[in-house]
Amino acid sequence: MGRPEAALFLAMLLSITGTARADIPAEVKQALASRDYAMAVTWLEAHRAEPEAAFELGKLYRLGKGVPKDQDEAQTLFEVAGRAGNTDAQYLLARRYEREGDIEQARYWMNLAAAAGYPAARDQTVAGPAAVSGDPFAAIRANRPPPQTAPGFELEMADGTGRTPLLLAAGVGSATWVEYLLRSGANPDARDQLGATPLHVALANHHVEAATLLLDAGADASLRTRDGNTALHLAVTGGATSLASRLLTAGADADVENDAGWTPRQLAKRSDDASLHRLFGIETQARDALTGAQGHDDALRLAQQAARRADATTLKALLKTSGRDAVRVNELDGVFFEAAAGGRVDVLGLLIRSGIDVEAADGQQRTALMLAAQTDCVECVDLLVKSGARAYVADPLGRTPLILAARDGRGVVVEHLAAAGAPLDTQDDLGRNALWWACRSDHGAVALRLLELGAPATSDAEGTAPLHLAAANDAAELIAALVAVTGPEVAARDGGRPLMIAARAGAGSAVTVLLDAGAEVKARNDVGDTALIIAVRAGQLAVTEQLLKAGANPKTRNDRFESAASLMAARSEPEWDALLKSSEKGLFGLFGSL
């Protein structure tokens, strides 16, 4: 279309007006279908207040087609369409709010879509604090976020063991829930059947952040459990030196006995933690231990203990001993690997300063960087990289630290490794790169970030692409991002397409995004199956309805002479019979036959 014709076409579109609403003209629909987005956007922008136009324009902003990619703008437009009853917009809004953690809004939009009979919303539930009003204990155990509003439950309700929600949150170490419940007015000194308060429970389970929040909220540190332990007893036995120091500063009694006759001071002396010794003014026994070491094995044991508690003085003295009983730093590799896997940056730093080989490998040929990459200890990763650990070294299966971090959903670690120069395109022995693994493990946020960083969306050695994995996981936002890179028709080894994979999995939102992106409903795999045939065979009623509405032909036959219609008829179930009759009556706008 030349410039004069284009100008005339746009003038014609802009002259089209409506009273209450403006239906999308056929010319605009044709422009969208042919991906002539520039032509369509002009009309849609001029009618963005109209529900149908708002929805179509929102999809373009969501996918970055003809306009800059802008999820917030897409959400604004979907809300215009959703309030007017557009169920597709309502469903997409529900999913976005759910991903953002705004469960109240997610449930609102999902309920609207379900009430209107939207197939993908009928059997969907929003996982989150919606269940909190009835059972906060289940929400806390499942690590769901707390509601953004006032609690819809009694703060002092108790489960079978006498625990309140705050006691449970302190016990599992959910700082988010502890903070929310305290802010809502929960009693920080409530007791369970064993007489333990939330502070006792947090300290007994080594949850320092939760214990700190409780102390900040005024929890009574002098209260004792049924066996006589105070908060200071538990802080000492848990090795929480900073909290023990805070309690002592606040006047906690270091010499009060529990029912077993132990005082916090005695427990500290019994410990091999030098920092606790110093806190309680106990003279360390480290140097005595050095002179009393019996042979190399005993000295090595003491060195391992010193390293594990980051006792630099004792470790340095042991490493300086001479003769056949001397301890060498490379004998502490086991502690080094433990520290990397356990997120102990203090121990890693001590051993690195002592001269340990940062690229040593354990019995499974894993380096400390590989182990640290599978934790959330970014400080450990940064320290190892800064100290010379190479980010491109792979394990026997070809997995680099970046691949391992992506597989386990360690998004911040992925960021730091990429910034340190870790190659994004490295593949393991099966041809799977970091992006592939993030998609395989359903870590959508990590996969999206890898895409932004430039990771290639390549298929593995078996022909499985990241888009296939995202389709199976119903990861709508990730699918949209991948489609922008690869297109919607990436073929698997058997000729399967992402739409077919989503259909088999019953992934309704994936089907919606793929269809919006231009996925072909008529496409067939190597045995002639279409997405519709696959959906019916898998018993995915809602997706079958979606595909029929999108124009899929139920009479198309595969290489075995099966059709979606014949498979629906063979099911002999009321829901499928009704769907088959609707398709036969042309209620889905179906055309043609074989």
- Taken from the alpha-carbon principal axes, the silhouette is globular
Percent of sequence in beta strands: under 5%
- Low-pLDDT residue spans: 1-21, 125-132, 285-289, 589-594
Tell me the count of domains.
4
Q: What's the total number of strands?
A: 0
What CATH architecture of the largest domain do you see?
Alpha Horseshoe
What gyration radius follows from the Cα positions, in whole Å?
31 Å
**How many helical stretches?**
36
| Broad structural category | mainly alpha
CATH topology category name of the largest domain:
Serine Threonine Protein Phosphatase 5, Tetratricopeptide repeat
- Give the mean pLDDT: 84
What is the straight-line distance between the termini?
A: 35 Å
How does the major sheet shape up? none
What's the helical proportion of residues? 40-55%
CATH superfamily of the largest domain: Ankyrin repeat-containing domain
Per CATH, the class of the largest domain reads: Mainly Alpha
Structure, explained:
The chain is mainly alpha-helical and 594 residues long. The protein folds into 4 domains: 120 residues, Serine Threonine Protein Phosphatase 5, Tetratricopeptide repeat, CATH 1.25.40; 151 residues, Serine Threonine Protein Phosphatase 5, Tetratricopeptide repeat (Alpha Horseshoe), CATH 1.25.40; 106 residues, Serine Threonine Protein Phosphatase 5, Tetratricopeptide repeat; 101 residues, Serine Threonine Protein Phosphatase 5, Tetratricopeptide repeat, CATH 1.25.40. The two termini are 35 Å apart. The N terminus and C terminus are likely disordered.
